[in-house]
Write a structure and sequence with these properties.
The chain is of the alpha+beta class. Helix content is 35%, strand content 19%.
């Protein structure tokens, strides 16, 4: 269990944060307010917490652990708030850190300016923490409404590559457009008024990125020396 320290501009004046364009995982949890940004770069899917079995939403950043990251015309893709705030936690409403987290390195970006004010990097962490603090319960409620209407279903993702390799992505779920379009006018209107309908369509539209990611992976495999 990590030992947390409340963030302090005096005690942590020399602390530096490693800002890296690479992601630390191939699948990162996101909240509802991130859907419209995340869908520009990543497939958004649902999966279950291994401990609790509860559904949560996430952005698929790569096809499998250790796989090269998806690239969108050289533009840095959207970074989920859960990755921005790595190493930082909320403790009774205050920002705390795990000083042993690998994101803190001697050659990183300072967390504080010389006058003790938060740096741009720390302000980004503060925004990410705020997004998660308010967004997690909101997203849980949205997913509960999707489940109550039986809109979430398993998605079958089986990819074949030119070198003969195959890849299956198991344990993932998506909104069923058939179920969505079969909703009663009352339920559809309720989803629309809550803003859930927009999120449902954003999630289903984002799945198109899997085809692009598979093509990129196939191109890398084809270009690799025999």
């Amino acid at each position: 269990m990590a030992t947390l320290e409340l963030l302090n501009p005096v005690a942590h004046a020399g602390l530096r944060l490693r800002l890296t364009p690479r992601f630390s995982t191939h699948f990162a949890q996101i909240v509802a307010s991130e859907f419209l940004q995340a869908m520009q770069d990543h497939p958004i899917l649902f999966t279950k917490h291994p401990e609790t079995g509860a559904f949560y939403a996430g952005a698929l950043l790569a096809l499998e652990p250790g796989d090269a990251l998806s690239d969108n015309a050289g533009v840095e893709p959207y970074r989920p708030a859960d990755l921005v705030r790595q190493g930082f936690f909320l403790a009774e409403g205050n920002l705390a850190i795990d000083p042993d987290a690998p994101v803190f390195t001697p050659d990183g970006t300072p967390l504080f300016e010389a006058n003790g004010e938060p740096s741009d990097a720390l302000r980004g962490v503060q925004r990410a923490t705020h997004i998660l603090h308010h967004g997690l319960p909101e997203t849980d409620a949205i997913i509960a409404r999707f489940l109550a209407l039986r809109l979430i279903e398993p998605i079958d993702i089986a990819l074949n590559f030119d070198d003969g390799s195959r890849l299956r992505l198991d344990g993932l779920y998506s909104i069923s457009l058939d179920a969505l379009h079969a909703l009663s006018d009352r339920d559809a209107l309720d989803l629309f008024r809550r803003g859930d309908l927009q999120l449902a369509y954003a999630q289903t539209a984002s799945i198109q990125h899997i085809r692009r990611m598979a093509k990129q992976r196939n191109d890398r495999l084809s270009a690799a020396p025999a």
